[in-house]
Specification:
Helix content: 40-55%
Order of helices and strands: HHEHEHEEHEHHHEE
Structural class: alpha/beta
CATH class: Alpha Beta
Number of helices: 8
CATH superfamily: Vaccinia Virus protein VP39
Shape: globular
Mean pLDDT: 91
Strand content: 15-25%
Number of domains: 1
Radius of gyration: 17 Å
CATH architecture: 3-Layer(aba) Sandwich
Strand order of the largest sheet: 3-2-1-4-5-7-6
Largest sheet: 7 strands, mixed
Low-confidence stretches: none
Length: about 230
């Protein structure tokens, strides 16, 4: 599938840092991102036979958590970075995870039919969409009426103290250390900047409703460092 609808800078960046991405995620989150993913997937209330879209799937952590919680689902791991998907495919083989397919493409142009998925999920991916409105509209389009999706993302809805600590950690720990380990300082500067500049939950909720989602509920994680949004079409 073509990646031309994605932000080429972002795609190239994730292709470059794919080899160290998982290791640095565990390091910088101290492993707590696994708990966030677990709770976000639980909110989907998966059942065997459901068809699931993991958009901006990266190396597949959300998908593998979904298959751990519910066997018998069928999942499409969809991402514009071919290198990230190759790693996801290797992880699927190592874990003997069945019922998964890997498709390379942009969130702004999902090559699936209308109303074709029972659930969708996006973990720390919507801030990398080239067009947030278009990407969310595409997620709405491929979801069945009455079905739900979950979006997990960093949002600046934290107390002043937690926000200062978090921003300090992002800029003075994650950015230089991630740049040094991955040997890609530009990538971790970009990641730190996009995390700090991302819209508040209220602005995101307006975007979700504008796309057509009728219900939007929020759950804050770890003092508001991350937020999961459960969206109903």
């Amino acid at each position: 599938m073509s990646r031309e609808d994605a932000n080429p800078r972002v795609v190239e960046m994730f292709d470059r840092i794919s080899g160290t991405y998982d290791r640095l995620n565990r390091l910088f989150s101290l492993g707590v991102d696994r708990l966030w993913r677990k709770k976000a997937v639980q909110a989907l209330q998966l059942e065997p036979g459901m068809k699931l879209l993991d958009c901006s799937a990266g190396t597949g952590d959300m998908s593998f958590e979904a298959h751990r919680q519910c066997s018998g689902i069928v999942t499409t791991l969809y991402d514009p970075s071919a290198n990230m998907l190759l790693l996801a495919e290797e992880k699927a083989k190592q874990r003997n995870t069945s019922g998964v397919e890997f498709v390379c493409g942009a969130a702004e142009a999902i090559p699936m039919e209308d109303e074709s998925y029972d659930r969708f999920m996006v973990a720390f991916g919507i801030r990398n969409f080239k067009s947030l409105d278009q990407g969310i509209s595409e997620l709405w389009r491929v979801l069945k009426p009455g079905a739900t999706g979950v979006i997990l993302e960093f949002t600046p809805d934290r107390s002043a103290l937690i926000d200062r600590l978090f921003k300090f950690y992002m800029w003075w720990v994650m950015r230089p250390l991630g740049g040094a380990i991955s040997e890609d300082r530009d990538a971790y500067r970009y990641l730190a900047e996009t995390i700090q500049k991302f819209p508040k939950s209220s602005t995101l909720t307006d975007t979700f409703r504008r796309a057509g989602f009728t219900e939007v509920t929020q759950h804050r994680h770890s003092f508001g460092i991350a937020t999961s949004f459960l969206l109903t079409r």
